[in-house]
Design goal:
The protein has about 120 residues and is α+β, with helices and mostly antiparallel strands. It has one domain (about 20-115). Helices cover about 15% and strands about 40% of the residues. It is built from 1 helix and 9 strands, in the order αβββββββββ. The protein has one helix at about 5-20, and strands spanning about 20-30, 35, 40-45, 50-60, 65-70, 75-80, 85-90, 100-105, 110-115. The radius of gyration is 17 Å and the shape is globular.
Length: about 120
């Protein structure tokens, strides 16, 4: 195997490894009547400031649509966090007041979290 081929294989494995990692946030929402999520919602790593993008969401509509609060909550799936990340914030960056926000979430080994908004 040539050095170039070995480098290409290592790069492919690293790329697949980073693509397969995800961070899952299970959310509940107090007694709000309805809610929605904006695509401009990120996990922001405290150490580096890197933003993990929202990939998809379950049981919640993307803005401008709304989801009625049925008390069951919703789930957000984000890109994987960097290996060196120990603490992160969940921030919905929107052009109005009242976006979802949870600060100083301690990282765990499973990368699955439960948060409550309100």
């Amino acid at each position: 195997m040539s050095l170039q081929t070995a480098i290409e294989e290592i790069t492919e494995v690293k790329t697949l490894e980073s693509e397969e990692r995800q961070t899952i946030i299970h959310c509940t929402c107090g007694d709000d009547y309805a809610y929605r999520i904006w695509p401009s919602t990120f996990l922001i790593e405290k150490e580096s400031g890197r933003k993990a993008k929202l990939l998809t969401a379950f049981n919640i509509s993307f803005a401008p649509n709304w989801t009625l609060n049925d008390g069951k909550g919703f789930t957000l799936i984000f890109e994987g966090l960097s290996k060196g990340c120990a603490v992160f914030d969940l921030i919905e960056e929107i052009p109005q007041a009242g976006g979802f926000e949870v600060r100083d979430i301690q990282r765990n080994k499973m990368d699955v979290y439960q948060v409550n908004f309100g």
